[in-house]
Every structure is written in C-alpha cells, then in structure tokens.
Amino acid sequence: MKLQMIGLSHHNASVEIRERLAFSPDQAQEALKTFRSRFPDIESVLLSTCNRTEIYTAALDGNLCPTHHDMVQFWAEFHQLEAKDVFDNVLERTGEDVVRHLFTVAASLDSMVVGEAQILSQVKQAYELSTQIDSAGTLTHSCFQAAIRVAKRVSNETTIHKKRVSIPSVAVSDFASNVFDRFDDKNVLIIGAGEMAEETSRYLLDVGAKEFTVVNRSLERAERLAATFAGKALHWDQLHEAVIAADLIVSTTGATEPIIRLEEYKQLEAARFQRTLFVLDLAIPRDFDPRIAERVGVYLFSIDDLRQTCDKNRAAREREWPKAERIIEDETAKFMADLNHRATAPTIRRLKQRSDELKDEELKRLLNKLGDIDPRIADEIIRSFDRLVNKLLHPPLESLRDEAGSASSDSLLDALKRLFRLYD
Amino acid sequence: MLSGISIFCFTASYGVALLLEIVRLFFRAQVRAILSVGFMAAGLIAHTIYLVGEQNGLVEAGPISSWHHWCLIVAWVLAATYLAMSLTHPKTALGLFMIPPVLLLLGMAYWMDQVAPFDPSNRVRPLQIIHGVLLLAGTAAVFLGFATGVMYLIQSYRLKHKMLQREGFRLPSLEWLQNFNRRTLIVSTCLLAGGLLAGVLLKIDRQTNSFPWSDPVVWSSGILFLWLVAATLFELIYKPARQGQKIAYLTLANFMFLGLVLAMILFGPTQHARSPKEQATHFYSLTPTIAQSEKGAR
C-alpha cells in the first residue's frame, strides 16, 4: 500500500505561482479523468483552493504508484508549463506524512487563517468530485473520510475554530452576532470605502446581510464598493438619513474629526425610536464620538476594543493548539495502525491457511498409518500438531506485527510472501 | 403516587440538570450537555407521570384540582419549554435562568400541598376550567418573560462593556431575547385578561350578590392585570418602549407583580377557589397531622 501527495501551499509558494498551478473545478475534473486514463490502477483526489493545490494518490500495490517525476510531468503538461516550473515549487509527502498532512489541512490547522471553516467543505468537495468520477478508491475513501471525521473532532474538542483573530471577523462573529439574530433584514451602512470596510462587509455578507448602503465623500468610490454587494451609494450629505435608517454601521473614513458627534446623534436618536444600533468604528481617529456608546440601544465598538479581543483570541488559540495537535497525532497513529493491519491481514490469513492445510494433510496421513488407535492418543497427536504449527508461526507473525508501520514493514511482508510462497 | 414517583424525584432530576448547567461555566465537555438534557428529560417524564397519577379521576376533579396542582402544572410547562429551547439552542446557558423558576414553583407546590383543594363543585365547570387554565398559561408566560428579561439585561451589559462571551456562558442574541420578551408580554397580558374575565363571568354565573373584592388573590390579580394592560399599551403606543432594555424592565416588573399575587396565595388570608367545607383550613394554621388526616379524608 502506498499513499503520496504532491502539492504547494501558501507556506512555500507565492500567490502568482499558486494561481498558475491551480485547477478550477472543471479543470480538476478533467485532470482527474486524464490521470485515471494514464494511471488506471491509481486512486487520486485533487484539492485546489486559493491557498493550496495538492494531488493525493494511493495504490494498493506501491510499485504501481507514479514517481515524483511522473506527477510533476503530468501537472506541467496539464497546465502547458515546463516541468521545471512545477518541480521547483512543489513538495512531496508519502505514507504517514500524507495522512498527518491531510488531517491537519482538513482541521484548518494549516490554513492561512487558522480555524477558518471553509477548508473542510473544500476537502469534502474535492473528495466528492473524485468519488463521482470514480477516481477515489479504498485507500482514498478511508483516508478522506477519516480526515473529515478528524476535522470535526478538532472542531468539537477544541475552541480553535471559534476564536477569530482578524478585527473584522471578531467584530462580526463575536459581537454583531450577539446583538442581531439575523442579518438579512438589517440595513448595513458603510461609511468610507476603504479595504477594511470591504473586508468587514464580506464577513457581513457571509452571515446573511443583504441590504448595504455606502456613504463616501467620493460618490464614485462609494458606487464602486456598493456595486460589489449589490447595495446603493449615497452622497455624503445624506449621511444623517442613512444613520437613521441603519441597524449596523461600519465606519472607516480617514476623517481627522468625528463625523458623528454626540449632539448630532441625539437629534437622530428620536427619529430612530431608540432602535438597536451596532456601530463598528474602525477608523483612526474615531469617526463616532465615544460618548454615543452611552446612549440607550447603541453598541459602539472602536478598533481598540476589537484589538483587545483579537489578542485574547490569539492567546486562547495558542493555548488550544497543542490539544489540536494531539488529536491529529492520535488519529494519525490510529489510522496508520488500521491501515497496516489491513495491509498485513491478508498475508497472515494466507500463511495460517497454508499451514493448516499442511497440518491437516500430514495428520490425515499419520492417523491413517496408525490405524485404529485410542481416541485419547489421537487427540493428543492433533493437539501436538496444532502446538507445533502455532509455535513455528508465532515468531514471524510477531515480527510482522512489531514492524507494522515501520519503514521495513513492506520488505518484511514481501520476504514473508516469498519465503512461504504466499503470492496470489 | 404512580410507580412511587414523588415530587422529590423530578425536583432532584431538575436540580442535577441545573448543577450540570453550572458546570458548563467551568468545563467544556459534550457529555455534560447530553447528561443535562438527559436529566431534564428524565425529570419531565417523571413529572408527567406524577401529574397523570394525580389526574386519576380527571372528569370528576377537573384539570386543576388545587394550588399545589396548579404550581406543578406551571412548573411542567416551564420545564417542557426549557427542554425544547435547550435542544434548539444547545450552546446557550438558558438552563441557568430557566431551571431555577421551575424549582421555585416545585418548592411552592410542596408548600401548597397542605393548602385546601379547589371547590370540587366548581372544578369541572367550563368557565372555571377556562379561568384556571388561562391564568396558569399567563403565569407561565410571565415566568418565561422574566427569565429572558434577565438574560437580555446581562447580554446588553456585556456588550455595552465590550466583554467577550465566555464559552460556558453563551446567551442568545439581544434581538432574539427582545422578540421573545415582547411576545411573552403580549401573550401573558392576553391570557391573564382572559383568565380574569372568566373569573368575573364565573361570579356572575353563580348569581351571587357580592363580588369577593377583599380576597387578596382577586385584588392582587386585578393589579397585575391592570399593570400588564398598562405595560402592553405603553409598549404598543410608545415606539421606543418596544426596544431592548425597556421591554426587559417591563417583563421584570411583570414578574414582581406576579410574585405579589403568588405571595398572597401562599401567605395571605385568602380562601380563593377553595372548598367551602375546608375554607377554615389554611396551610399555616395546619399541623402536618391535620393535613395528613384531611388528605386521607379526601
């Protein structure tokens, strides 16, 4: 049995290289089919996301597995690149390392933003695609199913996925979600059209927000950002109207003075009927007068409030890391033990079967020769033969079990097959 | 009682569920959640069997036969509601707020065991049943409003002070709590209004000349009702009162008024709904021996 993986990720390849070597869903399907026709006995799964592209291969007979060179060549040919372009940027893993790596990837411990939930669904999609087009087999089935289970275990038994570390993600997942039950009926007002506003809006979009209004001093930039979220853009002088209508405000302007002072807010407050207002003031200096936070129904968070939470989450995540690693190690060891058992079990079974056949033949001959003997003596002879066979088989089987999973396991298994002529 | 189940059995089961909810604050384990739901469900099953056992002769006795029974049913409604909510919101610490009222009501039921039962001649009258059932459901709604009101205030305080939710002390969102509070306020007002109206009609139906205004349960219930109407009108007419903290405070005030009514039932000199024969027997004037002998006589 052989498992191998060739691939690249954000750890070892720049975004330009990742883009060149990535596979779109259609390309992945085509690549798997091509791979299948070129290596018909090899199982394969192709995982391609914006941060990693990895090809997992497996074969029951390790000798049939394509070499590193074959894999690089295949990849380069598919993308019509020079083999050297692929070779210089990919890493290879084999055996237990592949299992550990896949478990780590699925559990989102190898992601750029550790703990992000998207990678597990991407792993599932990659596995489902291979299953659909019959590229997956016994080994990849068990390996990917185990990876999905391990990812869930890490998610259930640690808080690593729950602790967000970027300011917009903390703002949305740790605070906005505690204020609002749903976002699809909320009016989101974005003041300013910078990167932070866009990133926060993406998180809001992920949790279901639909209604976006962008107010910016430059209407053109506001319109551009609003178009990204199918929202509407308003002139800067409509800011107060927009605040009255808003449920959630993300403010990220570069203004040097607050754009909403307490006195101004008090005037708007009556028109809002004290409706709950969640304000993410991500600007430095702040866009909202901090005293507004004391008003009824207003939950105002500045960048400093959120940064403290991010730091706490980062520390909490670091504390959880060893626990997650232990789960990965534990599950990898279990998986490999199971895999090795599956690899040696048929050989052991055949060896025992062959020995039993020989024993039965010799016993039959002996008992025929001895003729009508005392049944107790016959029983004693049968037991004696059983003991002899067991004692003869015990040392090689013990060695096989001891070596299971080690580097010499395959050669020992092969030697046993050759010595006892156990080939199919 | 049926299968030897006593109040202690399901009170203990709910108590263990509460302890497991407290453990949630310090430890994170999936088995805790399973055990907590398990104990709650076991308690609810025992509670149901106990109530069914007490309901032997339902037709003769009517669905609510005494204050003791009334408290048990309100506790059952709250326990069942909590169990359903704990399944839909498994990550929230709802139990810390919803199990104590259940235990409080069971404690009251235990005390009320010695209070005279309702007048058997009235218990099966449709108007009497409506009166009892609506007041019971309204009380359960006020209890629920109280629990979610407290949760709202804690969640709001936490967010105002930029405090992160502790893993073991997660609460539903402010919006959810606010909506739930609003509903309990309106529902409890309607139910209690219906219950009180049925009570008034009952008196008219009896063609008695005097209305028992001096009965502490009657006048305190009247105050509770007037308060609920005022609170609901305030909530409906004054738009800012529909928002957040105000509605939470209204539900807390509702609970205070309800507490007053229940205190009147427990400690006040009321003979409300009790059998005329047994009107002389009041729980705090009874010795356990007398209570036992009365039970035996029933």
Automatic annotation (TrEMBL), chain A:
It catalyses: (S)-4-amino-5-oxopentanoate + tRNA(Glu) + NADP(+) = L-glutamyl-tRNA(Glu) + NADPH + H(+). NADP(+) binds at G192, A193, G194, E195, M196, A197. Its EC number is 1.2.1.70. Residues 175-308 form the Quinate/shikimate 5-dehydrogenase/glutamyl-tRNA reductase domain. The record marks H101 as: Important for activity. PROSITE patterns: GLUTR. Residues 6-158 form the Glutamyl-tRNA reductase N-terminal domain. One of its GO terms (molecular function) is glutamyl-tRNA reductase activity. Keywords: NADP, Oxidoreductase, Porphyrin biosynthesis. The active site is at C50. Coiled coil: none annotated. Gene3D superfamilies: Glutamyl-tRNA reductase, N-terminal domain (3.30.460.30), NAD(P)-binding Rossmann-like Domain (3.40.50.720). Belongs to the glutamyl-tRNA reductase family. Possesses an unusual extended V-shaped dimeric structure with each monomer consisting of three distinct domains arranged along a curved 'spinal' alpha-helix. The N-terminal catalytic domain specifically recognizes the glutamate moiety of the substrate. The second domain is the NADPH-binding domain, and the third C-terminal domain is responsible for dimerization. HAMAP family: Glu_tRNA_reductase. PANTHER family: GLUTAMYL-TRNA REDUCTASE. This is Glutamyl-tRNA reductase. It comes from Blastopirellula marina DSM 3645. The lineage of its organism: Bacteria, Pseudomonadati, Planctomycetota, Planctomycetia, Pirellulales.
Automatic annotation (TrEMBL), chain B:
One of its GO terms (molecular function) is heme binding. It comes from the Bacteria. Residues 72-260 form the Cytochrome c assembly protein domain. One of its GO terms (biological process) is cytochrome complex assembly. Keywords: Membrane, Transmembrane, Transmembrane helix. The keyword Transmembrane applies. The chain crosses the membrane at residues 6-27, 34-52, 67-85, 92-112, 132-154, 185-204, 216-238, 247-267. It holds the Pfam family Cytochrom_C_asm. This is Cytochrome c assembly protein domain-containing protein.
